[in-house]
Structures are given as C-alpha cells and as structure tokens.
Amino acid sequence: MEVILLERVNKLGQMGETVKVRDGYARNYLLPLGKALRANEANKKRFEAERSTLEARNLERRSEAQKVADQLDGKSFIVVRSAGETGQLYGSVAARDIVDVLAAEGFNIGRNQVDLNTPIKNIGLHKVVLHLHAEVEISVELNVARSADEAARQAKGESLTSADAIYGVDEDALKPEDFFDPNQMEDGDEM
Questions:
Q1: Are 59 and 86 in the same domain?
Q2: Most exposed among 66, 105, 111, 132, judged by the fewest C-beta atoms under 10 Å?
Q3: Total structural domains within the chain
Q4: So what's the pLDDT on residue 121?
Q5: Cα(43)–Cα(47) distance, rounded to whole angstroms?
Q6: Domain residue limits at 54
Q7: What backbone torsions phi and psi does residue 13 show, to the nearest 5 degrees?
Q8: In the chain, which stretches have pLDDT less than 50?
Q9: Can you give the CATH number for the domain in which 48 is found?
C-alpha cells in the first residue's frame, strides 16, 4: 500500500514522502497513529493544504522533545532490585520499570520511547536509549543495584560482583598456596 507520511518515520522516510509499505503495517500502525495517509488524489491535495500546519506541529513536538532531552542529558537513575551474590537479578528491569523510574523523577516518557531490546538482568551501570521524537534521541544511565548504598559505590566505579565485593577478599592477593599447603599434611593423610 502506498502512503503519504505526515511525519518523519525511522527507516521509512521524511514528512511528505510517498512510500510503499506492507498493508498490515499501514493499517495497524501508520494510519491509526496518524503518521500517514493513504496515497490517493484526495489525500495528496489534503496533505498539500495542511503541509504548513503539519510542519509547524512537527517543529513544536521536536522542540518539546529537545527540552526534555536537555533536562535528561547526563542524568543517572538508580533502580533498586533484589539480586544474588553474583549480581544476577531475581527479576529483570524492563521498559515499564524504566518509565516508572523516570516518572518518579518527573519525566513523562512513554514505554514505546524506551529502546530496550532485552530486559536488564544484572546489577551494574547500563546505558538506555530514549527516542523522544523521530529526530531526538538521548541516552541515560541506569544504575541497577541491590541498595542505594551499593548504587553509590557502583557509581564511583566499584565492582559489586567481584570476590572483593561479595566476600571482602582481594582477588589479586589470593594465591593457590593460601588454599592448600601440602607441607602441613600429616602422615597418613590422603590427598
């Protein structure tokens, strides 16, 4: 199906372009969300008549998204979750959780604006990309930790999943003879 794009769509085209897309994509996504019109003569005339209004609305949305991006730039958000000793989360941090964390800080971001291919399943510092507008994209840092104290230590660059963090032992200081000394064996002891 051929459609006229009413706004920029990633990997598809710019506003005003006539593109050919699959019927289901047009019917289920582009047309219901108001991102495109069917490409027929009546809609082409309608688009040309409303072009300046659409461009102004797109510019306004982009400037609003840029303001939010400027506020989010360089921010780090702490997510506290239960995890095992190795740093593996008992659950995961998904797009819904990220939206909740951002909402608690006063940012109104939709779940579809969070670019997270797979849920976060380990503690640590994670970069998450937010698509605020087709032309505005920003990356924020999520600090996933077991507690606020661990999050602060992690933000300083300390690893929470090493033997030092878990057992209070410096991995580099350990030597094999610290575990077993054959000279301490008595007669009759077996290996």
A1: no
A2: 105
A3: 2
A4: 93
A5: 6
A6: 2-67
A7: 165, 180
A8: 163-165
A9: 3.40.5.10
